[in-house]
Write a structure and sequence with these properties.
Low-confidence stretches: 414-431
Mean pLDDT: 78
Order of helices and strands: HHEEEEEEEEHHHHHHHHHHEE
Structural class: alpha/beta
Number of strands: 10
Number of helices: 12
Distance between the termini: 143 Å
Shape: elongated
Largest sheet: 8 strands, mixed
Helix content: 25-40%
Amino acid sequence: MNMTRRIWIQIIIFTVVSFVALTIMAFGYVKLPTMLFGIGRYTVTVELPEAGGLYPRSNVSYRGTEVGQVKSVRLTDTGVEAVMELDSDIDIPSDLNVEVHSTSAVGEQFIALLPRNATSPPLKNGDVIARDRSTVPPDINELLNATNRGLEAIPRDNVKTVVDEAYVALGGLGPELARVLKGGSNLAIDARANLDDLVNLTDNAAPILETQSDTSDEIGAWAANLAEVTTQLKTNDAAVQGILQRTAPAADELRQLFDRLRPTLPLVLANLVTAGDVALAYQPNLEHLLVLFPTGTADMQGILLANRNTKQDYQGAFLSFNLNLNIPPACNTGFLPAAQQRSTSETDYPPPPDGDVYCRVPQDSTLNVRGARNIPCATKPGKRAPTAAICESDEYYIPLNDGYNWKGDPNATLSGEPVPARLNELDSAAPAPPGYSPIPIAAAEYNPATGEYVGPDGKTYTQRNLAQGAIADRTWQDMLIPPGQ
């Protein structure tokens, strides 16, 4: 038989198409490499109490998706083992439960893999799922027998009554039942569409429930406190009603008050802010003042009540009027010379001299010990200076002289400065003379740890009830009462 070139071309094309179709069927549909050589799959064995209707090639599902099939089902001494072939492309957590389900009451059986968490390592080839993590459905024959026995328990004479009562109960409710069934169907469809979110919600609900369980005591206490509050509200219902009835008038009065204060209240609040900043800056000074206040109060009580509980008939104050004249002598350094001082009989008010006028002697001098040169710096504890500029800077106070110039100009210095003047740039920026160092101040700060402080008389006192660890339930009235009273 002599075939033409056209016939040969048609035979070749038909052969190629047939080969491609068979290849696609073998690899894509039949999955011949997987079936013959297990390529792309791995096997996992699950132990079951019984077969439960499983058979080879039964489907295996994970989160509602088919991930493999049952390769074989074999008997063992303790039950049944089902060998599953699973897709290698899908990672399935190894911490899971295995359940055998049926597609319907009398349908095909399949295996459902239900993970306990999503953090456990994935299953691998050769893993075995223990029997305590697997369940099978009840035997359909036993279920039908139980149903038959339940139906036989119903008296035949009362079946008609049951049907009649069911008709009375459901008669005319066809549209409502149809809506219920339709709503249930739509709910199931939506649940299917959002299956991943529902599964995620189910998997992650355990931590939330565990937190509720762990905080059950706190929740119980909160409920008990809430019950106590509601009980108090119920008991004091009349008072609560009175508050609610009087709240509106009180709010109206408060609004009128704010309306009247509106022109001046912002200015007062702004001034209070300034006063608050000053109080915050001088907080250590205020604390020191409060510490000295009880001692000063006790001294005043000792002066005014000196003859209390005595046989003296008159009331008076015991004071010492010793005249300590010129002990210590007055400080003249840092003030205007005598020739420039005004007479006390003059009544005009000329401008003050240009400069800071204060006693400019060493800080440990016995002259004018409470002068401006020993004012504590509020922002730098331990430092004392006569002006805020020196306090805020890194400079330290330098006196004019020792203060004992009993003749000549009391302000005489190496620079020959005749009268007090403001610190110029040269004075404030110039370094200290060679060998000069700040003279330690002969004063002691209040020690909050021990309660020790220096009083106005130069003596050291101890106030134990102000130290750390003292009794905390004392009031400000206790500071006004002498000890032991």
